[in-house]
Amino acid sequence: MSNNGNRIELPASIVIRDLAQKIEKSPIDLIKKLMTNGVMATINQAVDFDTAAIVVAEYGLEAVLEVVEAQKPEESGEVPLWRQMIAGEDGARLKSRPPVVTILGHVDHGKTSLLDAIRQTEVAAGEAGGITQHIGAYQVERKGRLITFLDTPGHAAFTQMRARGAQGADIVVLVVAADDGVMPQTREAIAHAKAARVPIMVALNKIDKPNANQDRVKQQLAELELVPDDWGGSTMVVPVSAKQLQGIDDLLEGILLVADSNEIKANPEGKVIGTVIEAEVDKSKGVLATLLVQNGTLQAGDIVVAGIAHGKLRAITDFKGKPIKKAGPSTPVSVLGLSDVPSAGDLFQVVESDREARAIVGERVEAARTQAQSKKKVSLEDLFANVQAGDARELNLILKADVQGSLDPIISELNKLGEGEIGLHILHAETGNIGNNDVMLASASRAIIVGFNVQADVDARRMAEKEGVDIRLYEIIYRLTEDIEKALKGMLEPEIVEKVIGRATVLQVFSASKFGKVAGCKVTDGELRRGARVRLYHATDLVYEGDLSSLRHEKEDVKEMRQGFECGVGFKNFSNIQVGDQLICYVVEKGEQAG
Ligand code: GDP
Predict the structure, then answer these.
(1) In the chain, how many domains are there?
(2) Banded model confidence at residue 496, pLDDT cuts 50, 70, 90
(3) Region 213-221: what's the mean pLDDT?
(4) Ligand 1: which of 108, 175, 211 to mutate, most ligand atoms within 8 Å of CB?
(5) In the prediction, which pLDDT does 77 show?
(6) Does 344 map to a domain?
(7) Do residues 486 and 502 share a domain?
(8) Which of 509 and 157 is assigned the larger pLDDT?
(9) Residue of the CA atom closest to atom 6 of ligand 1
């Protein structure tokens, strides 16, 4: 808290509970004061700065707007991918390149309409014939500067790219309908953009609608840490109507401003690299791929490796279908000549020779094979190991809970934990079951999914298995926070796993003085081991579970008994053994080390 006398710094938006805490007053009292001022708010609701200022004035405090630090995409050390791509380039040769923009947002908020509206302004600006083909990306010109748009609305494409280690976009334009406000997919989109460290600006769409409420949306955005610039924050919010072509110019200008403050650069003379936007087989032409050049200049005749596809580019056309000879950074092009269909999100590069291309592809195929065999989960146990090795700096989490009422306390508990040496980054927190989108986000961000009183959908489970994403479900809050705390401190006990080492069938039951009854068994599989654990099943009923304390072979005590042999097994305090019972012998081992 930064109180200076009776001055208090407040953000552009603050939740009542936090406000009460900040001014050290009872929230109930605060809510009453708000009510007398005609504002109805619950303890979990946020009020804007002006409202908060009026209320704190009643306590004799003067509110001043907190200075919000500029958005820092690299705040936790992760560098956007395109910066890594140009890391080897000579700084003096780097030149500004057009920003690459992707449009995300909730369904029906107008992503497609906005992409169309922007395309139309291009036509209006005098493009003969307009743009008839869709190659997954296009460019528009504004004040002599180009902007590249990825024309694949919806964050599935964006996330898929990220899951493959690619990051086509430099800027995310988040479309929010002014009549509908922030919705679940809006939040998801924000989580994706934040996880990818891509700056976000907002297109506040459908302002032509009679029930549009821009202030309400701004309030909601502020609550999600996207404080609008006109509220003193750093998120540009541009009101638009895709339908009536209003505000499109402002939006484009806004994009250029965001681009300028992010120094989006590349070396046009450098190594040619970029990302596959989409690809398909054209019956008459062969493999047709859309590539986004991100560094260097791509030329017809270049030999390209894209994922596990390769080939000499026969023809390059721009997004309007016009043949071109070369394409510099941020240019989307359609190319012919690849051997196979690469996947969206695969990186491509230009190589010297066909031989080199084949060698790289060969290595990748091999690497993919070994990776598939040893695909490791990002699990709390791994984090534990990484903490010990000094590698981990941050734990990414996706949190799902049954109701908002459980989400809030969990988040505040977790935030406290994240103040230690290892940061905790909650990428996305929402109510509802764990679904595919959560798994995609987790996979792309190397995050763990934590569920509280929720289930994981069957599809999501399957996908998590495939992608190696750890899903942890809890029903008690402190168990959840305890596990995370242990992981962050590098103290997590590896998960205990059972390993079955043998099975046996009971052929006879003997009486023996020491143990009451002894099972005469035949080992059908593996081995029985003294000191290990056993379970005895009568048909499918588990009738006994405990230590295997007595193991004898022809009246001799033995340590173990292998498959095919017969032996006597005694169970402590249990004598209801029956012929035909099945015995399972197992050991407990610790998590990943189990092998
Ligand atoms: P998407 O699912 O986000 O791609 O949304 P669409 O672009 O398909 O738009 C959904 C619906 O909203 C369509 O019926 C559009 O005509 C309508 N729509 C989009 N933008 C506007 C707008 O600015 N004003 C109004 N009134 N309707 C819009």
Answers:
(1) 5
(2) low
(3) 95
(4) 108
(5) 37
(6) yes
(7) no
(8) 509
(9) 110
